[in-house]
Amino acid sequence: MYPITLNIANKKCVIIGGGKIGYLKAGPLLEAGAEVTVVSPEICEGFQLLEKEGKVRVLLKEVEETDYKDAFLIIVATNSTLVNERVYENTSQSQLVNVISNHELGNFHIPATLNRGMLSISVSTNGASPTLAKKIRNDLGEVYDESFEEYLEYLFEARMIIKKSSFSKEAKSKLLKESIEDVYKYSLKERYRFLARLLPVEAE
User: Fold this and answer.
1) Looking at its record, which EC class is this enzyme (predicted)?
2) Is the confidence at residue 7, as pLDDT, over 50?
3) CB burial class (10 A; 0-12, 13-18, 19+) of residue 196?
């Protein structure tokens, strides 16, 4: 499998299956800005709430090929093996398809992901053991705690200033390496001092 980070903002994503498993997959899609459609004769309470809030479009029906023919990404999460396989067989090679019940079908897996603001760490076992992937993600959560959210904001700000600065290419490279030193991770005061060094000195 080839690991990537995918921009799905405003892309049509279809979840086939209205149960809790499909609902759990909807959250990350919505957070990424996708346009989510759910196709299922019945939907769980979570999907009902999302539909009421206008966050997802729901088609209360048995799935047909026309429901996902133009979808960018498809997640197949019904409790019927036959339905899941039929949907997969009717998708095109240009579509991204994940079949929850069978990791050998489809062309992408959904990794266990840890999010800390702009930091995302994903763990995949290529379908061998999703349980282990989740355990590793949770272990990483203890190392990369909530403090990394503000730390990444500082690093982003520093990088933007450095990129736009008049420093030489070599100086920029050195500053970027310096910006991730531990002293800046643990001290807000040192972060402010570092950022201040990057700003041009106004002539008197």
Assistant:
1) oxidoreductase
2) yes
3) exposed
Separation of alpha carbons 198 and 37, rounded Å: 46
User: Residue 163: its pLDDT value, please?
Assistant: 95
Structure tokens at 196: 């201040």
Residue 69 sits at φ, ψ, to 5 deg, of -60, -40
Percent of the chain whose pLDDT exceeds 90: 88
Single out the residue of 102, 123, 108 nearest to residue 13, CA to CA. Answer: 108
Q: Which pair of structure tokens corresponds to residue 199?
A: 């700003």
Report the amino acid identity of residue 45. E
* Residue 105 main-chain phi, psi, to 5 deg: -90, 165
Q: Which helix (H) or strand (E) holds 184?
A: helix 182-186
Burial of residue 160 (number of CB atoms within 10 Å: 0-12, 13-18, 19+): exposed
**Over the stretch 99-137, which tens digit does the pLDDT of each residue have?**
998 888 899 999 999 999 999 999 999 888 889 999 999
Torsion, Cα of 88, 89, 91, 93 (10° steps): 110
DSSP conformation class of 202? P
